[in-house]
Amino acid sequence: MRMDDKMYLTATAQGEVKGTGGRAEEKLGARLQRIGMEFGFFGVLSIFYGVSASFCLFRNPLGITVPLFVAVTYGAAFLIFRKMGVPIKKDSYLLAAVSLLIGLSACFTGNMAVGYYMNRLALILLFCIFILHQCHQDNKWNIGKYMASIILYLAQAVGMVFYPFRHLGEYILSLKDKRSRNVFRLLGGACAAIPAVIFLCVLLSGADMVFRNMLSVVISKFLNPVTLFMVVIQTIFWSLAMYCLVCSAYGGSISDGMVNVRRHSPVAAVSFMAIVGCVYLVFCVIQIVYLFMGKGSLPLGMTYSQYARQGFFQLLFVAVLNLVMVLMCLKYFREHALLNVFLLLVSLCTYVMLASAVYRMVLYVQQYQLTFLRILVLWFLAMLFVLMAGGVILIFNRDFPLFRFCLAVVSSFYLVFAWARPDYITARYNVSHRDNIAREEQNDFMRLSTDAAPALEGMADSAIKERLLSWYAGRYEVWDDGEPMGLRTCNFSVLKARSYLKSH
Fold it and tell me: Residue 482 sits in which domain range?
C-alpha cells in the first residue's frame, strides 16, 4: 500500500479529511482497488483467519479455544490497521481487553444462553464499535449514530461479498515475477501430493495395525465427508467475512459527521411532559403508600403479596419508554429550565417504578424460587438504574458523552453477568430455600447447566444429588459429537461437574 494511501486513511480516522460528493465516492472506489493490489497480504491473512476460526469454533460452542478465537480476531485487526497506517487508539485496547474477557468467560460456563448466544452478540457489537472507533472520528457520535453506523457497516460488508473473488482474479493476472510463480508451483505440488498420500496410507495401514487404528480414528472424526464439508464451508465463510469487513472498513461510505437535528420550541414538550409527570407522580405516591409502606385498602379478595407480584413487565416497559422519551426531548427540543424540571420529575418517577419492579420481582422469587430468566431480569433492572443516571446528567449537561457512558456501563454489567454463572446462583438459592427436593422437582435442576453442580453440595438427598451430578457431567458430550471432551473442547465448568461426581 502506498504511503499516500496510508496518510489518507490516517487523516480520515483522525477527522482531518472531509470528502463530499463524487470526490468522496471516487476516493472510496480507489481505496477498494488498492486493497486488491495488496491481496497478497489481505487474502492470505483472511485465509489464515478462516482456518483459525474453524479450528476454534467448529462443533465447539464453549471450549477453551473460544477466547483464542477472540485473540486471533483482534490480532488480525491490529495487523490490518498497521498495514493501513492507522494508529491504534487507547480506547481500542480497552475494547479488545473487554472482548477477550467475554470470550474467556465462555469456557468457564456451561450455560449456552450466556456463553454462546449472549456472548456472541456482545462480541459482534464490541468488534463493530472497535472498527468504527478506529476508522472514524467518533468523539461526538450519539447512540443513534453508532447504531446506524453499525448496521451500515455490516450491510456494506455483505454487499462487498464479490470483491474477494474479483481481487483474487486481478491478483492472479498481475503475477509476473518468479517468486509469485514459485508460490503457485508450491501449491500445485501440495495438491498433487494428496492422491499420493492417500495411496501410501492405504499401503501402510495394511502393514501396521497400530497405524491403521490411528488412521481410522482420524478418518472417522476429522476426514469423514460430512465433517470435511462443514469445515471447508466454515473456513470459506470466515475468510470471506474477514476480507469483506476489511473492505467495508477501508472502502465504506460511513461519514464522520453528525446530522444536524433541528431543535424545536420546547413549549409542546413542556406541556406533554408536565401531564405525563403528573400521572407518574400520582402512580408513584400509590406505590409508596400501598407497596413499600403496606398501608391503604386493597380491592376485595386481594392480598398484599398478590398485589406486589402484579404488573412487573408493564412497569419494566414504562421505565424503558421513559428513558426513550427523555432522550428524545433532549435531542429534538431546545433547552428550557421548565422542560428540564419535568424531565427530571419523569426520571425520578422512573426510579420509583424501577424500585417497584425490583421489589415485585423479589417477592415473586420468594414465592416461586429463582430461575435464570428472573436473574436476567433483575440484572437488567440494575443496569437500567445506572443507565438512567446518564439521562439525568444529560438533562443538565447536553455535552455529556452518553454513548461512552452507556458503553462503559453495559460492558461492566455484562462482564459481571457473564462471569457470575447465573445457573450456579439459581441452584444455590433454590437448594438453600428448599428443605426437601421432591423427585418431581428434579426437572427444575436438570434444566440448568453444569454451572449448577457445585451448588448441589447442600442437597440432603444423596440419591438425587448423584443423579443430577451424573446428568451435569455428561451434558457437554452432546455438543462434542458424543466423543469424550478433548483439549480443544475443554470446558472448566464441565470439568468441575465431573470432579464433583467423582468425589461423591
Answer: 424-503
